[in-house]
């Protein structure tokens, strides 16, 4: 089986099934619709989107995006509350530029998105972690930490967490907002998976509370359309938007990504986005079912995991004495790979966890990956 035939340009050995990679298969990228959207956009007489962009981002697109988000969220989103970005990675780096200096403390979750940890490390920030349980960030621990710390911000992934797949329930969201309002703590909520639910609707996005505490909600088209577009948004209050648009970067280059914004504006206006998200939910929902069934069948009973309700990931806990970094060496010999748990801990803990993703491969490859993984874990149990 050539398991790499549907892959984007990822350099993997032939026949390797890399269950760690969190990005969509090539055939889930809607090239035909994007072609139509680009033609629609380029047929316009006014080509303002090829000039330097407006500071907050392409105004047409902010209008359309605000309308789209208003249709999906419980509360109205105003175009004035949006700042267009090159995706959440760039948004995080931009937030570090504006709100931190090297040595500042930033609160992160344990576990957290490993590449966000890398961005914060590049900025030489002092990371302090708050645990995540089955209901997301443990807000009681946050409250306690804030008795002695004055962090620059808190970074959280509230919905369909990467890697833990957990979701912060409404009550804890309200708690979090209350704590951050009391302590004047900026919350950076990475909501990249918010639209990818496979059963019930998630609680309201953290963007709902931009008026109640200092909060920036980050959204991205990487998981709901195509990561190569490098397009996302910040949703926050008008005061913070004003502050951010005063940056030298925006002053020099204009708002981020005006041309791609106009193409995605057409994509949404032509009705493609809603249809595409619906399609993704059907495909991923089906993949989860098959993959989880196969994992249950092939993984030894000591491997514990929960069926994700959304997002991209399955977070597997192995017995305490196992180290998934060395397990990975063995796994690669069997043509299967994953991401080891320690990547997701800024202290390099969580050694007995591993992250699996189901966005990249079709069901048959996922099933074969589960079989190979089960064999490797079984052989390495002591
Ligand atoms: C939690 C989280 N944030 C951000 C990103 C990257 O987002 P973007 O492609 O918008 O930079 C990812 C991608 O895996 C992610 O899982």
Distinct small-molecule ligands in the complex? pyridoxal-5'-phosphate
The main β sheet shows up as: 8 strands, mixed
Count of discrete alpha- or pi-helical segments spanning 4 or more residues: 12
Measured on Cα atoms, how large is the radius of gyration?
A: 21 Å
What would you note in describing this structure?
With 382 residues, the chain is an alpha/beta fold. It is built from twelve helices and 13 strands. It has helices at residues 31-42, 59-72, 88-99, 114-122, 139-145, 170-183, 238-245, 248-253, 258-269, 272-298, 324-333, 363-380; strands spanning 17-18, 82-85, 105-110, 126-133, 136-137, 153-156, 187-190, 215-220, 232-235, 313-317, 336-337, 339-340, 353-357. An eight-stranded mixed sheet has the order 2-9-8-7-6-3-4-5, with helices on both faces. β6 (153-156), α6 and β7 form a beta-alpha-beta unit. α1 packs across α9 (258-269), α2 crosses α9 and α3 (88-99) runs parallel beside α4. It starts with 16 loop residues before the first strand and ends with a helix. The model has no long low-confidence stretch (mean pLDDT 96). The structure holds pyridoxal-5'-phosphate.
